[in-house]
Amino acid sequence: MSHRVTVYTRADCSLCVTAEADVERICGELGIEWTAVDVDADGELRAEYGDRVPVIMVDGREHGFWRVEEPRLRKALA
To answer: Does the reported pTM lie above 0.85?
Structure first.
């Protein structure tokens, strides 16, 4: 099964930088593509996520926010 991983992020967010690096590393090891979406580029996303970024989505469902829980993410992508 192919998974879709999306990280909702914003510029100048240190937690976002860390989460993106973690997701990039984990997805790279597992051969899974992922994308980053800047919430500030879309008013609806900015309103929905506000300061609760980064948000990690797996297959269209919220998996977590602020930090990547590596064992949990790996399990979801297994």
So the answer is: yes
Query: Position 26: which residue type?
Result: I
Structure-token pair, residue 61: 């469902």
For 34-67, write each residue's pLDDT tens digit.
Answer: 999 999 999 999 999 988 999 999 999 999 999 9
Give the integer Cα–Cα distance in Å for 76 and 71. 9
Number of Cβ within a 10 Å radius of residue 43: 9
Containing 72, the helix (H) or strand (E) segment is helix 70-77
For the chain, the straight-line distance linking the first and the last C-alpha, in angstroms and rounded, comes to: 9
Sheet holding 61-65, edge to edge: 34-38, 5-9, 55-58, 61-65
Q: Do 34 and 6 contact (CB within 8 A), yes or no?
A: yes
